[in-house]
Design a protein that fits this description.
Spore Coat Polysaccharide Biosynthesis Protein SpsA, Chain A; 53% helix; elongated; binds guanosine-5'-triphosphate; binds magnesium ion
Length: 385
């Protein structure tokens, strides 16, 4: 197939019929399909099925019962499930004109680009449909900041936050992408060097339904930028540093209440390991945890490794300090640095490792036991409709 139009949808029922009608008219002469990746909580999937039955244009639906990674996760899932020559990602509320679709492929083929961005900020483009002057200002400011942070990778685009873009299938590495937030194009462009071309985007007002953009998306963008710029390890280090400060505060605090220093150290270590685990689950590995082992297993792995690391580190500290002239604080600092690296490797490679699709014997037994308790396990529906 020539083109898959990937449309992420969240409660977009009133827009589906008009969207499919306009896409079908726009792609005449192109071997195309529409793929809705839907996380709706309303009747959008039913509407998609009804509308699909009324059109010759092939329409597929992936409805996700567990919407991992929100809008970005939906787009990645869509990209994974197509082998068309081009994939074009487009909003489901008709803010993106379907009539632009053929020009994206034409531009990509003429320029040889991997990615074609429909941009509001080139000649012929406009962002008039963006509701409110404040939102337009915020949008422009965030583009400036983002481009300043990634001058090389984003050199080829004037609109790295656009939700309307084409991808030459196979040109990008999907595995390294972090599925979170609204700005999947930014994620794609910042993580890998790609050849980018642009076409103008006239950004319309949303046809019907309600916006899902809110303050939370702004915070998510901040976190995405931080992670893209500094990587996961710096966030991990920040949480580790916070943990170290908390550890000392608890140690000192408990001693003022008369708790002995060894007992206080154990309590401080325990509390900090729990605190660090919760923070890293929420902020550092939140995009990996869904594909990894279960939360209790993640916790026991973390606890066992951190506990063992503390004990071994203290023992090595004792051996070195007793047998050399080195000062204990310097030795401890060096050991903490080594321990930090090992902990990071262990967490990212083992605790949050994506589990293989082949189940182990333990998994099969566990699944059998769970099935006996719970007769109906909902499954994801990938249906041609
Ligand atoms: N699958 C999926 N789609 C989503 C999710 N959140 C938003 N979308 C879809 O992504 C597209 C963009 O979301 P919008 O709410 O229109 O965001 P926006 O265009 O920045 O905001 P407005 O200008 O107010 O429309 C729409 O098609 C939404 O239905 C989600 O969590 N999962
Ligand atoms: Mg919109």
């Amino acid at each position: 197939m020539e083109l898959t139009v990937i449309v992420p949808t969240f409660n977009e029922a009133p827009n589906v019929a008009e969207l499919v009608r306009r896409v079908e008219a726009a792609v005449v002469g192109i071997d195309a399909e529409v793929l809705f990746v839907d996380d709706s909580r309303d009747n959008t999937p039913d509407v998609i099925r009804e509308v699909a039955a009324q059109h010759d244009l092939p329409v597929r639906l992936i409805h996700r019962d567990t919407p991992v990674g929100g809008l970005s996760g939906a787009v990645i899932e869509g990209l994974r499930s197509t082998t068309s020559r081009w994939s074009i990602v487009m909003d489901g509320d008709l803010q993106h004109r379907p009539e632009t679709l053929p020009s994206i492929i034409a531009k990509g083929d003429a320029s040889g680009a991997d990615v074609v961005v429909a941009s509001r900020h080139v000649d012929g483009g406009s962002s008039d449909g963006l509701s409110g002057g404040v939102r337009r200002l915020v949008s422009q400011a965030s583009i400036k900041v983002t481009k300043a942070l990634f001058p090389t990778r984003l050199h080829g685009t004037t609109d790295p936050m656009s939700g309307f873009f084409g991808i030459r299938t196979g040109a990008i590495q999907l595995d390294g992408l972090h599925a979170r937030g609204f700005k999947i194009l930014l994620e794609i462009l910042a993580r890998q060097p790609l050849q980018v071309a642009e076409v103008p985007l006239v950004f319309e007002a949303r046809l019907a339904g309600t916006s899902k953009a809110d303050m939370k998306q702004g915070i998510a963008l901040g976190r995405q930028l931080f992670d893209l710029k500094f990587g996961r390890i710096s966030g991990f280090a920040a949480i580790g540093a916070l943990g170290a400060v908390a550890n000392l505060a608890i140690l000192a605090g408990l001693q003022t209440f008369g708790v002995g220093y060894l007992a206080a150290a154990c309590i401080a270590a325990f509390v900090t390991i729990i605190g660090n685990f919760l923070l890293q689950e929420r902020f550092i590995f939140n995009d990996l945890k869904h594909g990894a082992r279960g939360v209790w297993k993640r916790w026991w792995h973390t606890f066992a490794f951190n506990g063992t690391e503390s004990i071994v580190r203290t023992f090595v500290l004792w051996v070195i300090v007793e047998n050399t002239a080195l000062h204990s604080v310097f030795v401890q600092a060096a050991l903490i640095a080594v321990g930090f690296s090992l902990r990071y490797l262990y967490q990212s490679r083992i605790v949050y490792k994506k589990m293989s699709p082949e189940p182990t014997l333990d998994d099969i037994i566990e699944a059998e036991e769970a099935r006996a308790d719970e007769p109906a396990i909902p499954v994801k529906a990938t249906e041609p409709v």
